[in-house]
Fold this protein.
Amino acid sequence: MRHGRKGRGAVARTSILGALQLLAVGCGTGTTPRSIDATAATDRGLLGDAGIFVAPHPDGAAPALSAQSVINHVQLPRSGGELSFDLVADGVPRNRLGVLLSVLGSAAPDIKPQDAVDLELRRGAFLLLLDLRAPAFDDASSATLTAHLGLDLDGLPANNFTGAAELAISPEPPLFATLTGRIKQGTLEVGPGTFVVPLPFGPPPHPTVSISRARLRARVDSLGLRDGVLGGLLSRADVEEKLLPGVAAHFAEVYRSKDSSAKTKEVLRSLFDTNGDGNIDLREFVSTSIVSLAIQPDVDTDGDGRMDALSIGVGFTSTRCAIRNPPARR
């Protein structure tokens, strides 16, 4: 989780055989999952055949299988109709984040936030660990997906998505977020609920945001989750205090960079550097007409007739890993 970037600003139908391959969650060649203490787990009856992690069910029902993975790609939306959900049951898919990024992409086409998000993932600037539990991974009437902020124990971002990384649950809050739902013909659908994720914009440290009415859909396969979409609502506070500062910081970083072309700098100067000081601050960024219109909330969550939340949606994939216990606090 280390890197060399500098900046400022605060800153988503397998066969039974395939499912079992996914459940052999040890990232090496051994069969005992490293995500739990093997001795303690055996004492509690948690280890099934071939080291499959079998989670006990509190009401004595059939135990759930556990598939652990780490998100290795986040896909940003390119329009308001992409990677979207109907969040208010009116038949209209919404993704206001896609509208914002589409507007910014049209105004400054040489600036690509997707490239920046990809780079942050490769550098290990943020990790999101997923633990999927269900009686089966092809069809199950109940499924639970829990997300944890991750911690890179070996400090080597290059191996985070290879299956060889030592990944643990971060001891820092928020410790987890859970969505429940089902799996039908290998497609996981969970939510609505509240999901907490790191915001992949701007330089680290990446703040977490709470997504309300969150829904998640993905294909379950032997390597992890595929074609995933996570959508929901951001509060006005999270938009103003976390999302916009992160996006603005990215544009400011590009504006200051010696690697940016003269054309790109001129576009950014004309759009955002309203006082001509060679920088783009948050006030300048959000006060421009293209941004202020694009970030208007589009959902009324409390029925008072005023829009107070912003719809978002992103795509994602995840790859198999083993989640270790969080390190003890000192």
